[in-house]
Every structure is written in C-alpha cells, then in structure tokens.
Amino acid sequence: MSKDLASLRQNRATAYDALIALGTPEAEADQTAFDAAATNVENLDRQIKSMERAQALKGSTAVPAAPRQDPSEAGSFDSFGEQLLAVARAGNGGERDPRLVWQSIGAASGQNEGSGPDGGFLVQQDFTSELLKKAYERSDLASRTRKIPLGPNSNGLRMNAVKETSRANGSRFGGIQAFWTGEGAQKTASQLQFRQMDLRLHKLTGLLYATDENLEDATSLEAIINEAFEEEFAFKIDWAVFEGTGAGMPLGVTKSPALVTVSKEGSQVADSLVAENILKMWARLWVRSRKNAIWTINQQLEPQLYQMNVKIKNVAGTENVGGIALPPVVYVPPGGQNNNNDYGLLMGRPVIPTEFNSAPGDKGDIVLMDLKEYLMIDKGAAKKATSIHVKFITDETAFRFVVRIDGQPVWESPLTPFKGSDTLSPYVTLEAR
C-alpha cells in the first residue's frame, strides 16, 4: 500500500466523521451542507477504488519476480548502511536504485514480498555472508564445532556414521575385528556396522524495525543492525549447541543420549564443586577428546575454582586433616603469568563461562565437551530482506534476517572401554548436588 492510498483512506475517514456530525438535515442550508459532505465521501470512495485497482495491476506487472537484474551489472553498494538508505528511499516513493534486487517468495499467500509496493529487497551477498561469519566468530561454542556447508539444491544432510558403542573385541567400529592368524590358516571375516545421521535445516529468524530517524545516518544504522544481530544469532546458535531440543532446532550436547553424568560425592555440600568432581569428570572424557575439550561453567562457580588452588577440601567442605591429601586440581586464571589466554585453564583445557550452564548445584552447571564431535550444517550466508510497508504508519522500516542451520552430537551413546566398566564420552557433566 502506498502513501497516497493511505492518505486517501485517512481523508475518507475524516470526511465521513464530518458527515455524521451534521446529523439529519432540517433546513435547506443544512441539507446543502449534508449533500456536499456526502458527495465528498463518495468522491473519495471512487478515488480509493481506482487507486486499489491500479495497485493490483502494478503488483502483477510492474516489478516481475524474475528475471532479476544481476547487481554486478549496476555495481554494488559500498556498505550495508548505504543499501539500507537506498531501500528506504525506494519505499518512500523515491527512485529505485538499480543496484537493488527484488526478493520473490513463491510460497507466500495473499500479499507477499515478491513484487510491487509490498516487496522486499535482497541484501547484497557480501553483507549477508559477513553476518553469519561474525556470528560464528562471536560464539564460544558454535565456532568450535565441525561445520559442513550445503550446496544450493540441498536442505539437509544424511550421512553414514560408524555405530560403535563398545571397544570390546568384535564391537570396535561396529564389528571390525582383526585376528592373529597362523601360516596357512583361514582368515576370519568381520563387518562394519553403520547408522545414519540425518540433519535438516532449521530457520533462525530475526526481525528489526528502524525508525526514519535511524535511517538518516547510514553508518549509525549499519552499526546498530549488525551489532544487534551478530550478537543475537551467536547467542541463539550457541544456546542450541548447548541444550537445543532437536525439535525445530539443533540437538544440544546436554540433551544428547551420549552425555555421561558423573555422580556427586557421598557427603558433598549442596551447590559445591570439589576437586573429586573435576578429577572424575576428566576420567570419563574419551581420551581422544582431551586435546580438543573445553569446560563450560556457570560464572558463579569461578570462586570455587580459585579455592581449589589454595587447599584441598574433602566432600563435606572442610579442609583435609591427616591422611593422604588428593593432588591439587590447579585452576590457572586468564591473563596470569602462566596463562596468556582469554580463558582460565583447568586440567590444561579452557574454562568458558556461559549463560547457558545451569545454576550452581544443578545438573549442567559444569560441562566438559569436545565440540569437534559435534556436527553443524548451514546454508551459508544469512538471507536478509527489507520492507518499508510492514510498519508504514509508524515511520519504521522492517529488516528481516534468516539463517538456516542444524546440528547434533556425532555420538549417539556413551562408549564402553576395552577394559573397565565406566563408560566414556566426548560430553560429560556433573549431577545435581
């Protein structure tokens, strides 16, 4: 709907109010005023119908959804902010910049962003690629996962993975086994066993409204939008990697059936974290994950990590007296003499406080995970589109962002070791205390 049509409808509403205010004509002068007011309403009705008819014709012929102009033929925008200003000018009735390209949404019913005055503009590819790239760079978890980009005609990934739940003879790699064989003896066959990992893209979307005042400054607007969505997308993707349900979103590490949960100590104080917890979690981590693993914690646990450097407490929370003390579990804080990293170190691996870990004392307040054993797929660059009409009456422009991703842990169950009874996993947490 254009500004002219909106103005006509507003004028019609005002004219009708004026007509009603005249009431029932009782004198010739009153009748003349009433007839004039009624004629004004009728004239406005005819103008509105004519304008609506013209708009309908324009929607079907004026801006075809395809073929689209190659933006490279008309040059490209120097910045995202410059493109947003061009969108605003076009939406407000100004000349359309030839570098703008319409977006077509064939599945939409009724009014859609495929053409004409209710259309949306595709955002330049290099700008959209940058948003997803920055979101990954800002993330603490997704940036460490194993990523597979998808091709243009794919909306998911189905791949074979080895079905291995035990390292016992006859179970490694789902059934492969080698035998010591004497000279001339018959060989014994064995067979791999596979399972299928099925990943399907899910949409992570964002919608932002910018006022006309925001749109007056391309640099300011670009900074606001990019900062907001890079942070928000990074947050939501990391949250999904940590505890996504797998329903309409990725499956998170803490929801994985392969998660190993270490028991608390027998007389452990509520909400506490003791050296025994750390040592036992480390012992349940799959050995090949030790070089890649990270600790994620609720930030409120940090004071207890520092205390492990000072003295060893027993499970009741008091200092050990007599007997053989446990070896100290040393937490190395960030920025110290022995650690120039951004994060502290525990058992030599980074300790990353997140907003996703549970409150102290709850299961999931500390998690040890190897995110190289987590697979993510994405469709590449984020899709961005803009529309001047969604919030037209409040002088706001809508900016829509869509990222399509999925992810899940590679492991489907903990692993029984070749010798020993405690299962191992790349994902380990501590039970509630």
UniProtKB/TrEMBL annotation:
Name of this protein: Phage major capsid protein
Record localization: Virion
Domain Phage capsid-like C-terminal, residue spans: 119-418
SUPFAM superfamilies: Major capsid protein gp5
Natural source organism: Aminobacter carboxidus
Organism ancestry: Bacteria, Pseudomonadati, Pseudomonadota, Alphaproteobacteria, Hyphomicrobiales
NCBIfam families listed in its UniProt record: major_cap_HK97
Record-linked InterPro entries: Phage_capsid (IPR024455), Phage_capsid-like_C (IPR054612)
Main location: virion
